[in-house]
Amino acid sequence: MRILITGGTGLIGRNLCKLLHEKGHQITVFSRHPESVSVKCGAAVKAFASLDEWQPDTVFDVVINLAGESIADKAWTAKRRQALLDSRVGLTEKLIDKIAGAHVKPAVLLSGSAIGYYGNRHDEVLDESSTAGQGFAADLCIAWEQAALQAQGVRVCLLRTGLVLSRDGGILAKMLLPLGMGVRFGSGMQWMSWIHIDDYTQLILRLIADEQISGPVNMTAPNPVSNKDFTRALVDVRHGLVSLSAPSALLNLMLGERAALLLEGQRVLPGKVLAAGYSFRYPDLSSALGNLLSA
Ligand SMILES: NC(=O)c1ccc[n+]([C@@H]2O[C@H](COP(=O)([O-])OP(=O)(O)OC[C@H]3O[C@@H](n4cnc5c(N)ncnc54)[C@H](OP(=O)(O)O)[C@@H]3O)[C@@H](O)[C@H]2O)c1
Question: What is the pTM assigned to this prediction?
Answer without folding.
Answer: 0.97
